[in-house]
Design a protein that fits this description.
single chain; 319 residues; alpha/beta; Rossmann fold; nine-stranded mixed sheet; three-stranded antiparallel sheet; 11 helices; 14 strands; 32% helix; binds S-adenosylmethionine
Length: 319
Amino acid sequence: MHQIKKPIISTMKMDIKKKYKRMIVGTTENMIPFYVLNGFTKYHHTVKNFFVDNYDEEVWDGLKIMINNEHDFYNEIKNWDFSYINYIKENFTRWDMYEILRNNSNSESRVLDLGTGGGEKVLKYFPEVKEIIATDFSEEMIKTANENLKNSDKNNITFRQMDNLNMNTPDNYFDIVVARHTCIDAEQIYKALKTNGLLILRGVDKLDCWELKRLFGKGQAYKDSKPISLIDYENILDAGFKDVELVPIHIREYYKTKNDLLALLLKTPILADFSETQDNKNLEKEEIDLNKLDEYIKRNSSEKGILLIRRYYGITARK
Ligand SMILES: C[S@@+](CC[C@H](N)C(=O)[O-])C[C@H]1O[C@@H](n2cnc3c(N)ncnc32)[C@H](O)[C@@H]1O
């Protein structure tokens, strides 16, 4: 199967190259990268395992991240799985949210995971506790999460749709609330937690991939005047939490090839003008300028790969 797939892919590629000056490349459900002539849902060609099979080949004339609003962006992506991208990580900060979660939970704990995506992290890294409720505002993410759940041996996890900014969980119910790379409302989380309950938050900070964003003159939180880490930190303090710790997390990632880096940029909003502090409703379709990307790659290549400096932050807080 694998052997006959490649020639077919090459033929399709030649055809597409001849036909279209501009095209869009992205990933769809089940990690299927695709070409699109126009519109996110009208797939002209779907090429399974494109990124996996074609790492050495340049086939793009134009690259776009499609954004109408944040909800639709995540709904189109449908999962938060990056296992097909080839990169290594060097962690300079010892702050591991799953270790904190393990150290603060036991078999009787009730845990809420906000903005869970396709449940990838909950299913893989969360400890065995009494109950895990994992939520996301994207119905497609929850669909993926439930499929992933079916293929797991877990029976203590429930996935369901919920907006983090309009939570409908019971009050004083959870021992721990986890939020990884998603937006939060500190006051609503405070209500959902039991007394002495723990909030464990990890976020993507303003200076994440900063050199790349500066080169492109845009990107996630690029125009925010106040870093989201500080906004979260202050909101969490103001909501009444105690023992609030904010830890900057420094990570260096090395992407094996340009296509690995592109795969990341197409899937994530790194180069999109997403903001936690502004209205994301009418964002335009974002184009990735390949000349700028080449310039970045020239400046950041080494034998380890193409360097991307990541800036996250971790917050822990007690009710
Ligand atoms: C960057 S992904 C992170 C997924 C997962 N937490 C992880 O770390 O792998 C962000 C997720 O948050 C969800 N999300 C964004 N805004 C949300 C909101 N207001 N309410 C609920 N989910 C939201 C998205 O649909 C997406 O699945």
